[in-house]
Automatic annotation (TrEMBL):
Cross-referenced InterPro entries: ADH-like_N (IPR013154), ER (IPR020843), GroES-like_sf (IPR011032), NAD(P)-bd_dom_sf (IPR036291), YIM1/Zinc_Alcohol_DH_Fams (IPR050700)
Gene Ontology MF terms in the entry: oxidoreductase activity
CDD domains (alphabetical): MDR1 (cd08267)
Pfam family name, one: ADH_zinc_N_2
Species lineage: Eukaryota, Fungi, Dikarya, Ascomycota, Pezizomycotina
Gene3D superfamilies recorded: Medium-chain alcohol dehydrogenases, catalytic domain (3.90.180.10), NAD(P)-binding Rossmann-like Domain (3.40.50.720)
Domain Enoyl reductase (ER), chain residue ranges per copy: 12-333
GO cellular component: mitochondrion
Protein name, UniProt field: NAD(P)-binding protein
Domain of life according to the entry: Eukaryota
Length: 339
């Protein structure tokens, strides 16, 4: 089978990727809870280039090379272990792999996944729509529910509303009757409103901290998808309720990025640290969460904003576009022809 791979770390993934011919895992080698998936559509996330491009311990020791990137997928069950009863061969499923430190990702014609990393594709749901949920939708869901103070009737601020996580978070919050204020740049205002944002702050036209401070302590939760401005958490007591939670989503997987997170958690408020509860979303692939996402896709409460699609042969071009940081929603890769 064909699969995209990189064999080095610490360099531009666009240049490092090569299309290789690899063996397909034999059905007899599958463990009890494993499925062999013929990938039809996949989608890519920033973490899939940030980790291999990072230099140092994290990329060198936690990645087994050569490696195939890709976490999100929608495809057909091509084979399963004889004792796996959750799925049947020929069924369409979607989901996400559970770790970015993987050797065999979804940018391949076939991928082996654990059966708890996917759910059945609901009837009538487009394969591209499902393929592009995965990591971004799980991150949005787990940032909003159930560990934060974001409950029906509350008010959430989403810093960075036009990307994959942001557009999913807006829709999920509205599905639970939550008031949503988002930040974005001028060209993305209409997109954020279209997916349900109640209020949009154009950070290009104001000082964001001053704008939020003027509103007072009105937010129950803040989701920071951007990490900018740098002092957003430190100033959050000016616009986040005393009982509120600041949820950090954006983080660079390198030494400086991890050091920044450590400082945020460890710096006492008396020494200039934040004064509100801080959480950092470490996304997990939970089948129960995927089931909720599938229900929302099926009833129309959730839709994927697809920025662009690329053919399997053009995966490096897809990463090149993703790295520009200007995507509206998700980038989808067509790995195989849709049935």
């Amino acid at each position: 089978m064909q699969a995209w791979q990189y064999s080095t770390t610490g360099q531009d993934i666009v240049a490092a990727l090569e299309l290789k011919n690899l063996d397909i895992r034999a059905k007899s080698s599958l463990r009890k809870d494993e499925l062999l998936i013929e990938v039809i559509s996949a989608s890519i996330n920033p973490v899939e280039y940030k980790i291999p491009e990072a230099s140092g311990v994290m990329s060198s020791f936690l990645l087994s090379l050569p490696a195939t990137p890709g976490l999100d997928f929608c495809g057909r069950v091509a084979a399963k272990h004889k004792d796996c009863s959750a799925f049947q061969e020929g069924q369409n499923v979607f989901g996400a792999l559970s770790s970015a430190f993987i050797k065999a990702g979804t940018l391949a014609r076939f991928v082996v996944v654990n059966s708890n990393q996917c759910v059945l594709l609901p009837p009538g749901v487009d394969l591209d729509q499902a393929a592009a949920t995965g990591t971004a939708a799980l991150t949005a869901y787990q940032s909003l529910f159930p560990n934060s103070t974001t409950q029906p009737g509350s008010h959430v601020l989403i810093n960075g509303g036009s990307g994959g996580i942001g557009t999913f978070a807006i829709q999920m919050a509205k599905a639970r009757n939550i008031h949503v204020t988002v930040t974005c740049s001028t060209p993305n205002i209409e997109l954020c409103k279209a997916v349900g944002a109640d209020e949009v702050i154009d950070y290009k036209k104001c000082d964001l901290i001053s704008e939020l401070t003027q509103r007072g302590q009105v937010f129950d939760s803040v989701l920071d998808n951007v990490g900018v401005p740098d002092n957003l958490y430190h100033k959050s007591h000016q616009f986040l309720k005393p009982s509120g939670t600041f949820v950090l989503v954006a983080a660079n997987p390198n030494v400086s990025g991890m050091a920044r997170i450590a400082r945020l958690f460890m710096q006492p408020s008396l020494l200039g640290g934040g004064q509100r509860r801080l959480m950092w979303t470490m996304v997990e692939t939970k089948q129960a969460d995927l089931t909720q996402i599938a229900e929302w896709l099926a009833d129309g409460s959730l839709r994927t904003i697809v920025d662009s699609t690329f053919e399997f042969e053009d995966v490096p071009k897809a990463f090149q576009k993703l790295k520009l940081g200007r995507t509206k929603g998700k980038i989808v890769i067509h790995v195989a022809k849709q049935p």
